[in-house]
């Protein structure tokens, strides 16, 4: 409250101010008075301010035990598979056609949609595995329309990636290094 008052006195509001807090469920671990104070901030600072809490869990799971102001709840449903495909396809690689990237996203969603609908996680997976999808093209072993060959090349990588969905225990660079080491070991065993 004190910090808000200091800031707002320096920059008086002509319109509503918005404080948007992502991952609001983390407020459960903060001081017990913080969440109730945020929910009553407009009243406490006597200013036109709105606090928006964004969370992936329901309000009931982190509502404070002390009586506090009940917020207006808005539920946003998960993206459908088609909506995810549309959104993810917008991040196409500049070196490849929109059609080619869209077919890659379709394959990716075919593997991950049943276990993961988180846009950020799917975007991360798409970026992480796209180079593996393109390897047969770059090596001249397949053409952009050879989805079967492209699928066969990326299938083992997507299966491995399935084991780490949501974990983020490895960075993108570490993941690529692990895959390269495994490929070298597999090559040494074959050779």
Automatic annotation (TrEMBL):
What GO biological process, any one, is recorded here? DNA replication initiation
* GO CC list: nuclear origin of replication recognition complex
Domain of life (superkingdom): Eukaryota
- Ranges for domain ORC5 lid come to 101-168
Q: Which GO terms describe its molecular function?
A: DNA replication origin binding
List the InterPro entries hit by this protein, alphabetically.
ORC5, ORC5_lid
Name the record gives this protein: Origin recognition complex, subunit 5
What is the species of this protein? Answer: Nothobranchius korthausae
Q: Which gene encodes it?
A: ORC5
């Amino acid at each position: 409250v004190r910090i808000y008052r200091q800031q707002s006195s320096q920059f008086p509001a002509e319109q509503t101010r918005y404080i948007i807090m992502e991952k609001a469920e983390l407020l459960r671990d903060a001081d017990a008075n913080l969440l109730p104070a945020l929910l009553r901030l407009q009243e406490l600072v006597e200013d036109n301010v709105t606090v928006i809490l964004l969370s992936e869990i329901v309000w009931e799971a982190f509502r404070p035990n002390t009586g506090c102001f009940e917020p207006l709840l808005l539920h946003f449903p998960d993206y459908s598979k088609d909506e995810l495909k549309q959104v993810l396809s917008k991040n196409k690689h500049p070196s490849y056609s929109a059609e080619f990237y869209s077919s890659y996203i379709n394959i990716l969603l075919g593997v991950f949609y049943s276990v993961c609908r988180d846009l950020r996680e799917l975007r991360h997976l798409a970026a992480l595995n796209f180079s593996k999808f393109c390897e047969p093209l770059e090596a001249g072993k397949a053409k952009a329309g050879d989805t079967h060959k492209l699928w066969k090349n990326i299938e083992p990588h997507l299966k491995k990636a399935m084991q780490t969905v949501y974990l983020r225990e490895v960075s993108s660079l570490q993941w690529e290094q692990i895959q390269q080491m495994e490929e070298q070991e597999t090559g040494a065993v074959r050779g």
